[in-house]
Amino acid sequence: MKLLLSCFLLITVLFAHAQEEVISPLMTNPNLKKKPAQNRIGNSIDSTFVYVIDTLDVPVWDDFSVNKFEQYNADFGDGNVTSQYYYHLMNATNTVPQNPTLIFCDSTHAHFDTVRIVAGFPTTEVNYFTPNPVWVNDLSSYPVQGQSRTLFQECYVLIDSIIDLVLDPDQDTIFYTSAPDFVQDSANVFSVTINDPNRIWVDNFAYHNYTYAVNPWSLGVATFDGVGADGWPYDWGNTGAHEKADVLTSKPINLAGTTSVYLTFIYQAEGNGDAPEANDSLILEWWLPDSSQWYLSQWYKVGGITNDIWDTAHVAVPPAALDNGFRFRFRNWANTSGNLDHWHIDYVNLKANDIITMPVTFNDVAISQPINSLLIDYTAVPWDHYKNAIPGDKMLDTARIKVYNSHSTETNFADGQLEVRYGGILQGGSPFNIGNLANSNDWNGNWELGMNTFRVPIVSFYEYDPLVTTAPQAKFDVKINIDADVSGGSNLYEVNDTTYYVQKFDNYYAYDDGSAEAAYGITGSHGLLAYKFTAYEEDTLTGILMHFVPSVDDVSGSVFLLTVWDDNAGSPGTIIYQDDYFNTSSPEYEGSLNGFRYYTFQDGISVKVSTVFYVGWEQIDSESLNIGLDRNINNGSNIFRNVTGTWVSSSQTASLMMRPVFSTGLNYTLSDDELIVESTTPDISIYPNPAHEFFTITGLVSTNYLVTVFDMSGRSVHQSQNQNNIDISLLNSGLYIVDIRDENGVSLYSGKLIKE
User: Fold this and answer.
1) Which of 3, 323, 410, 435 would be 7's cystine partner, CB 3.0–4.6 Å?
2) Is residue 738 within a helix (H) or strand (E), and if so which, with residue range?
3) Interstrand relation of 242-249 and 324-335 (parallel, antiparallel or unpaired)
4) What pTM does this model have?
5) Which structural domains are found in the chain, ordered by start?
6) What is the pLDDT of residues 566-614, one digit of tens each?
7) Strand, helix or coil at 600?
8) Total Cβ atoms within 10 A of residue 468
């Protein structure tokens, strides 16, 4: 059974004391965009887009190398968009809208009463005005549904009094002073007719990605976890939540007239994510058109299996489902309080008139993982550093591409291509032919069964041209294709034979691919974390880009001292720069792909570094600060920690999402595809500072907040609720951290205080 996160935290801390390094799962998926805005106003369906989904024919196939998820991004003027007005109030036959100037009320607010009083005893006779049959539509949901109602145009109550058989000459009127019960309203609903057989999936809760699986059989997988399409947990803060989570649903499929239909796919537990446990599961379900219901298939898998291993499922579709409108879906049960319990699927293939063949083969040759860079060591470097170097010295001698052969036999090799473009223009004589290396080293001239590591010569083909632009930034589009002999059906799907990436030259060095699969940190008060870089030239640092990620605990209130070291024989040496205790920093979560926070040095100064230097921090508290960990690129030998007085390199096969920024012609806020953000600190301050007996908080907007004062060991020494004058008279003299959070635990302020 999945342990509660509080228990997991205990295990993590124990591990930390023994190892000092902490690897923990993500609470969110920072690679997903925020939830899109809804096309609804209030409770109305006005301006809503309704999608009419097309029906697919077999075979249906997806290896997730390209995005086959339906895109719900129609606009009002698109050719496949039509609109229809729906009215709240219609005539009795629901054919003509009611006049918009009319108002209606029901019998509660529309009647006239005769009150008879005889010998002091009243009786009331209730009568009604002329009834109006009105059809009332509900415009809060689609499809629009309604009902016939008997309503009245008089929205008031008349009262006649008869006292001892004498009519009171004054008639009382009670008006319905609030809004009438029923007024005319309308909603314009836009219908989008979809007819795209290249889109298979109608929802996007499962995560289409290229980084979470280990040794995938092709580019891309669909990943199931405990977070939704917006990247946030389904049950934020509920650590014990365990329920249905992601779902991946096919479009309707026409199986009428088919026989022997099988669904085949491969699946993997954990990968680069979190391992599912025995109470977690991945489930396959069928939609039967005749009963219009979902049913469990006979296939499911529970956690606790061997992780990181691909296995094959070959499942017969029941005869009762062989009709037009059949659908299938995958779903998982998981801990829904975080980015946990990962399953990955690939090579989903629905075929008719199939037979049971074991073992199942997919008869395909595919690139397994994307290429991230043709540079030595780095995924990005400053453009001026590259231009000032000898470009050929910075290019890979040989790129290694993982290629998987899922055929039953070895497959013949056919030449591939390397293509580089700048601004759409082919560069350096590309495309270059990637020929067969024949029998050499670890290559035998064919695509062997399983995983192949194919070597592509780079520097002998190409180097990025430093003369293409004088701008401070450059981007090159790279395309690599590995082809295979398609005769005999040995390479059925050619779309996965090509990988693309953009080589960026900005103002920073980067090892990572921009994607975090876990959180990394060290434990120990005043622990040191340093990340080694070897620059192409000596230059001046202006700051560090860092991508912190939420994990088990929110440590955004913790503080650290930004630090830069020089080199000492391969380990961090003398401190070149370090924040002081009056200028500390805290982890800030941007929560998006390439969402880096730019941390500048104290007073905006620049720091001169030699070609080998280290960037990182000294943390004040003992908790792990949770920097993003990229598991797909190995730079563990460049990660150093020092908790006991000795520098030790990391045991992780991964990269940190930490990027030193240099003083070049490119400003870090220049518009780019990636999101780089500055800190936005509320205008909150404390005074006096230094303080003797009291300090005062100013600038707070929130009326419900918690003030905590920590000493430099991380121990809480004072707490108060909704107080802006804080008594510190009993505290010892020294340096403290003041932390202010709102009622949801969100950090509003964190700063240093000197107690005299």
Assistant:
1) 3
2) strand 734-742
3) antiparallel
4) 0.80
5) 31-72+196-362 (2.60.120.260), 89-184 (no CATH), 366-501 (2.60.40), 518-677 (2.60.120), 685-755 (2.60.40.10)
6) 999 999 999 999 998 888 999 988 755 568 999 999 888 999 999 999 9
7) strand
8) 14
